[in-house]
Design brief:
Blueprint: H1 12-25, E1 30-37, E2 43-49, E3 62-67, H2 75-90, H3 95-103, E4 105-109, H4 114-120, E5 143-146, E6 157-161, E7 167-169, E8 177-179, E9 191-195, E10 197-200, H5 243-254, E11 258-266, E12 270-273, H6 285-302, E13 305-308, H7 309-312, H8 325-333, E14 336-342, H9 345-348, H10 365-378, E15 384-392, E16 396-403, H11 405-410, H12 414-421, H13 423-434, E17 438-449, E18 452-461, H14 471-475, E19 483-487, E20 493-496, E21 500-502, E22 528-536, E23 542-549, E24 553-560
Parallel strand pairs: 3-4, 3-11, 11-14, 12-13
Antiparallel strand pairs: 1-2, 2-4, 5-10, 6-9, 6-16, 7-8, 12-14, 15-16, 17-18, 18-22, 19-21, 19-23, 20-22, 23-24
Helix pairs in contact: 1-2, 2-13, 3-13, 6-13
The protein binds zinc ion.
Length: about 550
């Protein structure tokens, strides 16, 4: 098999083949199953990775990664494939990956929305927000529909000379168009800008934008904070109404061992975390502190800042973005949810001091010039395409050009892609190694009478996270306590203690804040729990004991009385 490449966008068949080839390489580490079907009937594959020799996947704490719920953000799928490759090939030669696969599980859905991506990667592309299902209307709307009219595989911008156009050529660079000012001469050269496309039922005069009938946004269709179309465009008729989201929610909630969640998107070069609809002060303080710590490590590993959607990633004119996957993961399940937005042309062009969202509303022209220089020097001028004449079948002579948004903004250009996505595998591995993990601390049997024994088994959480993972999980009652079960052979009987004991939750090392923190360096044994039974049995009897916690794993041991 040819080595996998991480500098390209994978069509569905190629991606499935690549995933299957990795599973075939190490069936002991990776298996692939189908968790459901997309709107158009494509299988949605899920890869499960763990060392099967050290226990089944569902008895180990897990990290979940999915990608490409948005149709054009295909770099996310390449990043998910890179993670799979990194885990499979790193086992046995990378200590952290080896430890992670021996003791934890990864679930990876490399493409949540295969239908939308197929359109984006077609020879004559169509760019949708996400799903291909027509909603809220199924008829076709009149007006401008995006299309690669000149058949060069790109959808760019059309500029038309128009005395009432709102744009003029910039003095700083003749390719750049800037908004026209009120005091500009009335007889100057002005342009109207339209997306490259064709006009459905053109009357020769009016060019309205066709109201997009495929306007679903699958990342607004999750149950937490879901709001109707009247409040939030594209959210669908009800939470999890869309098959891709339903499949994801079903599969994730069925895997109760998942402690951390990543959704891979583009772009902005940032790791986003909840909340998306309220300020940080509303988050349980312990969860916020841990989120911030994980985010700081994430920045060290990936160079991406970690920010709250509410504080730093809110779109203008929108109160909040809700119904997204990462918030659902945190709010309802009580696990650490992230949205990774890969890649930023601004960063690549050397810009450093900008606001993630506001920049797109207003910024100095020097920033535009820096971006143009970057396109010229680093992308052979293919990022911003110089205007070229084209005879449009409906509009007559136009020019086509401008930013190749899909190839340069929505996705990392090939020469940047692998370096951009590679560090994120390490961030996922760090999360895996942060999850709680039950281990046996000590076992003690004491004869307390004639044929009566006290059995004491102590376990501890050897993870950074608490067994409940977050305070939010306790609030939502989404995580059960540790259960300790003793199984006695015939002839043995319990004198004290229930067969099944509930031992609550255990702290992890993340309880340590700092030696000079307000809580100080005190370190009690809140990471430790003991199960105790008194058993009447013939000396030499063997009893089985099991500790079970969905997020912290399973321990089985045997003691001899
Ligand atoms: Zn996205």
């Amino acid at each position: 098999m040819a080595p996998l490449r991480f500098d390209r966008l994978y069509p569905y068949d190629d991606l499935c083949q690549a995933v299957m080839s990795l599973a075939a390489q190490r069936p002991d580490l990776m298996t692939v199953e189908t968790i459901g079907r997309s709107h158009e009937g494509r299988d949605v594959p899920l890869a499960t990775l763990t060392n099967s020799a050290t226990g089944p996947h569902d008895e180990k704490p897990a990290v979940w990664v999915d990608a490409n719920i948005h149709a054009t953000e295909i770099t996310g799928s390449t990043a998910a494939l890179h993670l799979l490759h990194r885990l499979v090939t790193g086992y046995g030669n990378d200590e952290r990956i080896t430890r992670a696969l021996d003791t934890r599980t990864f679930y990876v859905v490399p493409r949540v929305n295969p239908d939308g991506v197929e359109l984006a990667l077609a020879a004559s592309p169509t760019y949708l927000r996400s799903s291909t299902r027509k909603w809220p209307r199924t008829d076709e709307a009149d007006g401008l529909v995006l299309e690669d009219v000149d058949g060069d595989g790109r959808i760019l911008t059309m500029r038309l000379l128009d005395p009432n156009g709102a744009w003029k050529v910039s003095d700083a660079d003749s390719r750049l168009l800037v908004p026209r000012r009120p005091d500009d001469p009335p007889d100057g050269t002005y342009y109207r800008l339209l997306d490259e496309g064709r006009i459905r039922n053109y009357d020769g005069v009016l060019v309205p934008y066709a109201t997009e009938r495929r306007s679903l946004d699958l990342n607004r269709n999750f149950p937490a904070g879901w709001r109707t179309q009247s409040e939030q465009q594209g959210a669908g008729p009800f939470p999890t109404s869309e098959p891709e989201v339903r499949v994801l929610v079903d599969a994730l909630t069925a895997r109760t061992n998942v402690c951390a969640y990543f959704a891979y998107h583009t772009y902005s070069a940032v790791n986003l975390r909840p909340y998306d609809d309220r300020p940080d002060e509303k988050m349980p303080a312990a969860d916020l502190r841990r989120y911030k710590q994980l985010g700081t490590w994430g920045e060290e590993i990936t160079g991406y800042k970690a920010v709250s959607v509410w504080h730093d990633f809110r779109y203008p004119n929108e109160e909040a973005i809700t119904g997204a996957a990462d918030s659902w993961a945190y709010d309802h399940l009580g696990i650490f949810g992230w949205t990774t937005e890969f890649w930023s042309p601004l960063k690549a062009a050397g810009l450093t001091d900008y606001h993630l969202i506001e920049w797109f509303e207003t910024h100095p022209i020097d920033d535009d010039l820096a971006l143009l220089r970057w396109s010229d020097n680093e992308l052979d001028g293919q990022g911003f395409v110089s205007w070229y004449p084209y005879e449009h079948p409906q509009l007559g002579p136009v020019e086509i050009g401008g930013w190749d948004f899909f190839h340069v903004w929505s996705n990392a250009p090939a020469k940047y892609m692998e370096a951009e996505i590679a560090p994120h595998a390490d961030f996922a591995v760090l999360h895996a190694l942060s999850t709680p993990r039950l281990e046996l601390h000590s076992t003690d049997v004491e004869a307390v009478g004639d044929g009566v024994f006290r059995v004491r088994v102590v376990v501890h959480n050897r993870g950074w996270m608490a067994t409940n993972v977050t305070e939010q999980a306790m609030t939502r009652k989404s995580v059960p306590p540790i259960a300790a079960t003793i199984t006695l052979p015939d002839g043995a009987a319990l004198v004290t203690g229930d067969k099944r004991l509930e031992l609550g939750q255990l702290a992890g090392w993340s309880r340590a804040v700092g030696m000079l923190s307000w809580t100080g360096p005190t370190d009690d044994t809140s990471d430790r729990a003991k199960a105790e039974w008194t058993v009447r049995a013939v000396p030499g009897t063997r009893v089985e004991i099991e500790f079970q916690h969905p997020r912290a794993g399973v321990i089985r041991t045997e003691v001899t009385l």
